[in-house]
Amino acid sequence: MVEIREAETAEIKAVAATMARAFDDSPVTQWIMPTDRLRPIALRAFFGAAAIDAHRHGKVWVAIEAGAVIGASVWLPPRLYPPTPKRERATLFPIVRLAPIAPFALMRALKYQNGVGRRHLKDEHWYLGTLGVEPAFQGRGIGGQLIQPGIASAEEEGMPCYLETEKIRNLPFYGRYGFKVTEEFIPTPDGPPIWAMTRSV
């Protein structure tokens, strides 16, 4: 039996590890960090920082089975994206610490993130920053369960939802929950494409 609930502080590290495994095959993460040995380290740092920020300022919902985190969704409420300079520094610090072992990857990541941020929806919205499920548990409807609390929160406030995805195969999944593609773009000339999707009020 899978339980969906808000994450506890002690579970954020497990959320980061789960997201790292879920996004290991992402076109973006493989482009940014092509080295298999280093990619899990970088992804845990990135998703850990994002999850800590959302746990403090937004919402992190987790899927729990047999006491373990097997999936999570990370949401930011309206007016919390882009982050304040203070939040941005806190989020970047654990990632920048990786510069000595992967300086080129760090530059790619920052450049790509800036490109994505420039195209971010300007209207107020609930932002689904990340949704991921452990590879062994994918295809069981857990992602659908994890997306629902954020959608419900947005509906209560009469707000749209917004997300970006780098996998074209994700488009039908999000489409089932009312999201529509609003833009396809390439954040950096040499990087992979991304799809922006919005769920209207």
TrEMBL record:
Q: Which Gene3D superfamilies match?
A: 3.40.630.30
Q: Which GO terms describe its molecular function?
A: acyltransferase activity, transferring groups other than amino-acyl groups
Chain ranges of the N-acetyltransferase domain? 2-201
The source organism is freshwater metagenome
Q: Which InterPro entries match?
A: Acyl_CoA_acyltransferase, GNAT_dom, Trichothecene_AcTrans
For this protein, the record's SUPFAM superfamilies field holds: Acyl-CoA N-acyltransferases (Nat) (SSF55729)
Protein name per its UniProtKB record: Unannotated protein
